[in-house]
Amino acid sequence: DTAVSQTPKYLVTQMGNDKSIKCEQNLGHDTMYWYKQDSKKFLKIMFSYNNKELIINETVPNRFSPKSPDKAHLNLHINSLELGDSAVYFCASSQEHLGGEQYFGPGTRLTVT
Amino acid sequence: SQKIEQNSEALNIQEGKTATLTCNYTNYSPAYLQWYRQDPGRGPVFLLLIRENEKEKRKERLKVTFDTTLKQSLFHITASQPADSATYLCAHPASGGSYIPTFGRGTSLIVHP
Question: Is-contact A49 A68, C-beta < 8 A?
Fold first, then answer.
């Protein structure tokens, strides 16, 4: 069984469009994260939720809006997509709040044309 | 500002040798360091966590050291195998009590048969 899953795996879209990426974890963890990994391979945290509550919002443009309907799901909605949004987006979860090992999803490769 | 640095050049070694990867951090004393493995097209996978009061941690063929004086962590893979070829990421929680996970760029390890 997949611990952290993301859909879709690949997303190709045009500038200006709105898109969503979904994430689900079946590990029973309380904390979930969204990371962005750019072409230089830097993995940078964007958001963190603990028990459906936003804990970290790392200077991400307002066009990015996370939503956590329950503690097993953390979705990422992106408005008015820009070329610079092209990257791989990873969802992750952890048992401890902002500590301990993180379990990552397979990633969503977003390409904005 | 805090920095976490890993050698950006790939490390090439022969099968059977010990691979040693370096993670240096500056302007901060993290409570712990983590090491992850990332294969192409996949999310990072947690390997080991070492706390500031631990000098060394082992797991099978893996060994991590934490030198708070040198501000450095070394990651060793003994008896390396081609299957160990991957990118290895170092991570630590940011300072200020926020514990925002901060990742290094990673070092690519290539084990030649």
Answer: yes
Contact in structure between B44 and B89 (CB atoms under 8 Å): yes
Q: Quick check: A10 and A108 in contact, CB under 8 A?
A: yes
Identify the residue among B36, B89, B100, B108 best suited for mutation to test binding to A, counting A beta carbons within 10 A and taking the highest.
B100
Q: Give the full edge-to-edge strand order of the sheet including B19-26.
A: B3-6, B19-26, B72-77, B62-67, B56-59
Whether the Cβ atoms of residue B66 and residue B73 lie closer than 8 Å to each other: yes
Residue B46's nearest CA partner among A101, A23, A2, A11 is A101
Question: Are B36 and B46 within 8 A, CB to CB?
Answer: yes
Quick: pLDDT tens for A73-100. Answer: 999 999 999 999 999 999 999 987 766 7
Q: Are A74 and A89 in contact (CB under 8 A)?
A: no
- If you search the block for the tokens 């469009």, which residue do you land on? A17
Distance from the Cα of B106 to chain A's closest Cα (Å) equals 8
Q: Within 10 Å of residue B58's Cβ, how many Cβ atoms?
A: 12
What pLDDT sits at residue B30?
83
Question: Smallest Cα–Cα separation from B37: which of A16, A102, A15?
Answer: A102
Chain B hits for A33, Cβ within 8 Å? 101
Instruction: Give the pLDDT score at A76.
Output: 97
Inform me whether the pLDDT recorded for A1 exceeds 80. no
